[in-house]
Amino acid sequence: MALLRAWERRYGVVSPSRTPGGYRLYDDTAIARIRAMRVLVDSGWAPRQAAEAVLSGATVAAADGLDSEPASSMGTEALPARAGLAPASADFEPFVAAAMDYDVVRLETALDELVGRGSYEAIIDERLLPAVAALGTAWADGRLDVAAEHMASAAVQRRLAALFDLAGRTGMGHPVLVGLPPGCRHEIGTLAFAVALRRCGVDVLYLGPDTPVASWVHVAAESAAEAAVVGVPRRADRAAAREVVAALRAARPGLIVATGGPAAAPSRSGSNTNAADPPEILPARVIDAAATVARLVGGA
Fold this sequence. Notes:
Elements: H1 2-11, E1 17-18, E2 24-25, H2 28-42, H3 47-55, H4 71-74, H5 93-100, H6 104-115, H7 120-140, H8 146-167, E3 176-179, H9 188-199, E4 204-208, H10 213-222, E5 227-231, H11 238-251, E6 256-260, E7 280-281, H12 286-297
Parallel strand pairs: 3-4, 3-5, 5-6, 6-7
Antiparallel strand pairs: 1-2
Helix pairs in contact: 2-3, 5-6, 5-7, 5-8, 7-8, 7-9, 8-9, 9-12, 10-11
């Protein structure tokens, strides 16, 4: 039960309703997602990547226990077997172990090893973000304290912030706004995307986590932004993201608006902002998402 609640809190795989007595209620769709998540994690997928696949509406036709699910509960698209959705690796254990021991020197050394095996484009989806997902797995399994997870995540954010500064300069043209909606603080994936986009030659104005709707609108106008990308790391962030999208569309009708992240897939309830003109839904992989936005704004 603790693992299920961790998936709910950290990845937004399900959002159960509650009885007057406080008990969680899971509908058929939620149960199908839980079963799919269980199969993927048991087969070696990192929880973040498994949640990303489940929330995208994909299914694994060959996975045990899923063949009996109706197609409408998980979608009909087969889950792509590709390097960007690879199983968790033992290579990440030194990083997790250093976090468990609160050993900053070992943690930084492990990070050096993770990021030193190629270009940013080669390591971000294959090594760095999966390593962060391994932290989540260790936390969900009870092996890693929250403070240790925060310490390690902060180290990753510092690396990404330094890479962002090295990737280019601001003020070169009409920027692309990148940030998270109000109430959302799960920043690593969105910051990783901002770095990748800047490396594509795009002028990025990074707003960071928990950015109020009014601030999105204000900076879009003041900066004469060409586009805005709203990160949606969890299902719980979808409503706030829709508010940001709606406000930007109302204030700047010509603005390119996109959403990205594990929970950025459109809601099946049809409650998406302006269904006739929905925001661009970016690919799951950071590098692919950055390339998509660069093409939209003519940066690549």
